[in-house]
Specification:
The structure is a single chain. This protein has 360 residues and is an alpha+beta fold. It folds into 2 domains: 220 residues, Rossmann fold; 132 residues, OB fold (Dihydrolipoamide Acetyltransferase, E2P) (Beta Barrel), CATH 2.40.50.140. 23% of the residues lie in helices and 32% in strands. The protein has 8 helices and 20 strands. The radius of gyration is 24 Å and the shape is elongated. Bound molecules: adenosine-5'-triphosphate (ATP). Adenosine-5'-triphosphate (ATP) binds next to α1.
Length: 360
């Protein structure tokens, strides 16, 4: 049982609090991603779980054991660093054997574990190769192998694909996901790349300013963000925000903005502020011939099977994701309307989304 639980975890460096009162439960065998912009406290959280940094306050449980004050070597956890130090003068077998030798394992056990890990990672044919002759991807596998041979309760990874080029990254993402399914070890993975997070994670925690804003499955993070920050950090392009500038009651089923009717989902809360705003994903808007929000086309980007149209309107720039077949020219006058009721209402004072039928 390798559930990881953090309770009221906090870390300060002098006057600066890098991680603020965080609570999380990472389930056994889960692939859990800590996602957020640079400096939001992802690495500090991971280092505290690893035992490389001591918490200022709070608790960390590995299974039932509270490990917050234990040294890294006393926790059954393997850390895969971004800039991992492989021994360039040793071959793959010796690189994989090294952590076990240091822990005093018998020769035969080392051989078994190394060959098993190499097979799982499909680098068994490279056991006698020198590190310097390997590709970036194979080096990454050796780095993972060094963590794997210890058969740890959990893996911690800090941007392990950060140094790879885009194509390799995609490939290694798939490899990591496959590997995780094969070995089923609890994994906590740090990245600032939302696409990487969406493709790898069972669940994602989005962090900002040392705080965990939301921890949920990728589709919930994408479709039902709890705050404006989460909504804007996830998605490419991000969500459109449209000012409503009026209060919204529970009874209300639509709102008119610039003579355009926006149907809103049934609300379970009456907004406290009169500075609310809508959040609408570009794929939940479409172009129409009449009755829509008027604007002119400012940009057209091709995204494989879809087009992103940027439209300048009186209330700001709005992005619409359309079918590739839609023929649209720069400066053309168009009208935009919601294509469904997938509209999120955010409270303008708290930036939090209001509960509605859609957000349920
Ligand atoms: P990145 O992706 O850039 O590594 P991150 O989200 O992982 O960002 P952290 O490395 O956890 O962020 O850092 C969070 C904040 O804490 C940053 O402002 C960083 O400068 C600060 N910080 C981290 N370690 C220390 C330290 N040892 N001493 C002082 N400040 C630190």
């Amino acid at each position: 049982m390798s559930q990881i639980k953090i309770v009221n975890l906090q870390k300060s460096f002098g006057d600066f609090t890098a991680v603020k009162n965080s609570n999380l439960t990472i389930y056994d065998k889960e692939f859990f991603v800590l996602l957020g912009p640079s400096g939001c406290g992802k690495t500090t959280t991971l280092r505290m779980i690893a035992g490389l940094e001591l918490p200022t306050s709070g608790e960390i449980f590995l299974g039932k054991e509270e490990v917050g004050m234990l040294r890294a070597s006393e926790r059954d956890i393997a850390f895969v660093f971004q800039l991992f130090a492989l021994y360039p003068h040793m071959n793959v077998r010796n690189n994989l054997s090294f952590p076990l030798k240091m822990q005093g394992y018998k020769k035969n056990d080392i051989k078994t574990r190394v060959e098993e890990a190499a097979k799982l990672l499909r680098i068994d044919h490279l056991l006698n190769s020198n590190i310097s002759s390997l590709s970036g991807g194979d080096r990454q596998r050796v780095a993972l192998g060094r963590a794997l041979v210890r058969r740890p309760k959990a893996f911690l990874m800090d941007e392990p694909l950060g140094t790879l080029d885009a194509e390799f990254r995609e490939l290694m993402c798939l490899e990591l996901k496959k590997l995780h399914i094969d070995i089923g070890a609890t994994t906590v993975y740090v990245t600032h790349d939302q696409l990487e997070a969406m493709s790898l994670a069972d669940r994602i925690a989005v962090m900002d300013g040392g705080q965990i804003l939301q921890a949920d499955e990728p589709n919930i993070i994408y479709n039902k963000p709890k705050t404006k920050f989460v909504a804007s950090f996830i998605g490419s392009p991000g969500m459109n925000f449209i000012d409503v500038n009026e209060g919204i009651s529970q009874e209300q089923s639509s709102i008119s903005i610039e003579d355009t009717n926006f149907n809103i989902p049934k609300q379970f809360e009456t907004s406290k502020s009169n500075k609310n705003f809508f959040g609408i994903r570009p794929e939940n808007l479409s172009l129409t011939n009449e009755g829509g929000l008027k604007g002119s086309v400012f940009g057209v980007e091709y995204l494989g099977s879809r087009k992103i149209i940027t439209i300048k309107t009186k209330i700001g720039e709005i992005k619409v994701k359309t079918d590739i077949s839609i023929n649209i020219k720069l400066n053309e006058n168009v009208q935009i309307k919601p294509s469904n009721d997938n509209i999120i209402i955010f409270d303008g004072e708290t930036d939090k989304s209001l509960k509605s039928e859609f957000m349920k």
